Amino acid sequence: MIPDMKFVATTCPYCGVGCGLLLAVRDERVVGVEPWQAHPINEGKLCQKGRYAHQFIHSEDRLKTPLIKRGGSFVPASWDEALQLIARRLSSYRPEEVFFLASAKATNEENYLFQKFARVVMKTNNVDHCARLCHSSTVSALAKAFGSGAMTNSILDLEEARCIFVIGSNTFEQHPLIGRRLVLARRRGAKVISADPRLTPTAKEADLHLPIRPGTDVALINGLVRRIIEGGWEDRGFIEERTRGFETLRETVMKEESTLPGTSRITGVPEGDIEAAAEMIATLKPAALLYSMGVTQHTSGVENVLALANLMMLTGNIGRPGSGVNPLRGQNNVQGACDMGALPNVFSGYQSVEEDGCRRRMKRVWGVEELGEARAGITSTEMMEILADRPGRMKALYLMGENPMISEADQNRVRRALDNVEFMVSQEIFMTETTELADVVLPAASFAEKDGTFTNTDRRVQRLRKAIDPPGEAMPDWEILSRLARAMGYGKMFDYRRAEDIFEEVARATPSYAGISYRRLEEPHALQWPCPGPHHPGTPILHVERFATPDGLGHFTPVEWRPPAEVPSEDYPLILTTGRSLWHWHAGSMTRRSKSLGGEVETGWVEMNEEDAEEMGIGDGEVVRVSSRRGRIELPARVTSEIKRGVIFVPFHFAECPANRLTNAALDPVSKIPEFKACAARVDKL
Ligand code: SF4
């Protein structure tokens, strides 16, 4: 033990796995990170990102004082001055003219307060967050199929699977401590299948790799469903007792495109591999499904997830350990931000903003007479559309910890949209590409400087514990919002002394969190929702006896394959798909300021197939131009055999060569998620 060193147990600020870590603190500085040995998920291990999670905290670049833009430049201001200005400007707008963009990087308490501020103070449901860009298709599809949009199982029971089907997820690099469970399951004899256009580290570890063409998920899954039915491998008992709609599903997959040759033609996966995968998924029980944004970020995102729900119900793989439909959330608190109602159509706990009973409940908890209209607000992607294409309709934008200039599709259009905002506020820990465009910037506390909770990908509500004070005048997002509400005359409804006060209100407002308290979260294993009462043990596995649908049954929803919004053409002959690096997280503002992480991968690259590269005369490491119909970027080529021919891959973290300058903002019609994972592109030598 080093003298004067204290260790504070908290939760990793990066991916949705939610590993427990200990911040080592000396002289009011976080000097290191240790894995939390007693934590059930990571069991004393951390990935690279978690291991160096402290390195950005004391960066010289941290925002330390409020800033107001005057004459095109930011000047420091007092909190009073900044909050009075924001209060005055926000008060001048109508509810439909403002938009609130919350964040999966912020705590549950902060997201809850953010949507409360939008709904109580500004009387608008125009509130959303970055789940719109990652798992909104999951929430829509699983709510329809199962009655709940959440991961059905636990990270801990994955090891009991005999088969794990991973599709559209590079689990080893993006959720490394779930990747570890995959390895442990394999050691116990489980077979792993990976469907991915790239031979990722996850695909290399798999027993079977299905090199799928981007944008053909429904075709592959329908092909698997058909082969399972033809093989007589479906779980008849489960289908009859627990589901409805099977016959329509069966009829849908009897079309030619779902035969083995038809599926192979569309997806590019060899027939024999499709057949082998179908047999493994259906006959090695229990089988678990893991998926991520390779599935969800498509104009057919909702259909892709519905098809996967069909597959797992068909094989009876719901409601038991080692099975389930398991969407892996990218950011640490995507699940929580959704749970807290940072969405345009629901209050916390997915209570509809349109239903009288839910509105009455929220008015009672919030102590207000009136809320805004009983109608869902617009999504963040629709907000960008309106700002870019119909200037003047929306006027004010309030951001908490988000950087849409890097994370939204079609960057040039995003820039046009943000330039059309009349008044923009950004609560942030660093100046970012988006914050530069704001009118007022408010310095926020980082994860190490505040209390709260995060809810990880398997619905586990966990504590975040304050280790040090924020730098300068920065303060937690929840405190900023409380002060602003006070400045706008709503002090009584936002009178919180500490984050725990807010969480107690969350428990009163949110049936699935009703039994959770800070006291109960002291144990490292924390609690998984639903947890409806103070003695309820939490719920590791959903849908054990009945689904959460009104009739208690799982609903098969037949879907048919349709191509992505943009397909290769003569001018743009390649399919561009985007993703992440092991070393970086999201828009890079934290990991790129970390000495150990930023130094490993300093900039972006385009990954391309070696045969494609040879035809174009492009060598490994050569700087090339990648273009789509929306823009162009220049970056080095990584020439490899580990990506499908005709496909290129660009990670999206890097502002100097932003993948999202190229991506297509076409939306899924239901979830409004953009098609980040497939657009037409070209590569040119410089
Ligand atoms: Fe953090 Fe995710 Fe790595 Fe765990 S796996 S240490 S939560 S980044």
UniProtKB/TrEMBL annotation:
InterPro entries documented for this protein: Asp_de-COase-like_dom_sf, CT_Formate-Dh_H, Formate_Dh-H_N, Formate_DH_asu, MoPterin_dinucl-bd_dom, Mopterin_OxRdtase, Mopterin_OxRdtase_4Fe-4S_dom, Mopterin_OxRdtase_prok_CS
Span of domain 4Fe-4S Mo/W bis-MGD-type: 5-61
Enzyme class: oxidoreductase
Keywords: 4Fe-4S, Iron, Iron-sulfur, Metal-binding, Molybdenum, Oxidoreductase
GO BP field: formate metabolic process; respiratory electron transport chain
Any one GO molecular-function label of the UniProt entry: formate dehydrogenase (NAD+) activity
Catalysis performed (reactions): oxidized coenzyme F420-(gamma-L-Glu)(n) + formate + 2 H(+) = reduced coenzyme F420-(gamma-L-Glu)(n) + CO2
Documented EC number(s): 1.17.98.3
PROSITE patterns linked: 4FE4S_MOW_BIS_MGD (PS51669), MOLYBDOPTERIN_PROK_1 (PS00551), MOLYBDOPTERIN_PROK_2 (PS00490), MOLYBDOPTERIN_PROK_3 (PS00932)
The protein's required cofactors: [4Fe-4S] cluster; Mo-bis(molybdopterin guanine dinucleotide)
One CC-aspect GO term: membrane
Pfam families associated with the record: Molybdop_Fe4S4 (PF04879), Molybdopterin (PF00384), Molydop_binding (PF01568)
Gene3D superfamilies registered for this protein in UniProt: 2.40.40.20, 3.40.50.740, ADC-like domains, Dimethylsulfoxide Reductase, domain 2
Family per similarity comment: Belongs to the prokaryotic molybdopterin-containing oxidoreductase family.
Annotated protein name in UniProt: formate dehydrogenase (coenzyme F420)
Organism: Methanothrix harundinacea (strain 6Ac) (Methanosaeta harundinacea)
